[in-house]
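Sequence, structure tokens reproduced for reference:
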Amino acid sequence: MHSRRALTFLLLLPLLLAGCRRPAATQVYVAPGVPFRLCAPEAGPDLSVTQEVVFQFPDGRRETALAAIENRGGKLSLVASTPLGQTLFVIRAQDGEVKVDARIPVPGDMDPRVLPALVQFALWPLEALRAGLGPGARLEQDGHRRTLLRKDKVVWTVDWEGTTPPYRRLELTNPALGLSVRVRTLED
């Protein structure tokens, strides 16, 4: 039952963030009215990591999922699964294309490509990210915190612990949704 709720949330997260609009092939909405053009995988760090992802909802519920992320050879891959290992979906970004292989039905108005965008906000170099932001949005960094703003309102914050990506711990927060996502890198 717990894994089913995590699956439901993973599928609904992009809908909550992106609204009902379908962006262009290289663009996603990381929040309503906030377009972002995904960065080239080559602009990010070389990594292969498995992370535990814990979603904290405003009503106090917590859901856990696993994410295997690899960025090598000009390709970014993200595999989302339940804690018991059932694959939910695989997302690959390469050569300006993003492909989603959903192992379960994904509603037509959802855009799972929001997830690699959030991975990039947490791990890619600041200047590469800024180049992909749409009008009215800006990304700031102060120490171990990045803040994405639209019209001076906080859309997402990303805090991290560690010195180099993928970082030991990350926390992404969306104040409008009352959502926080805690990410812990698992040891090999």
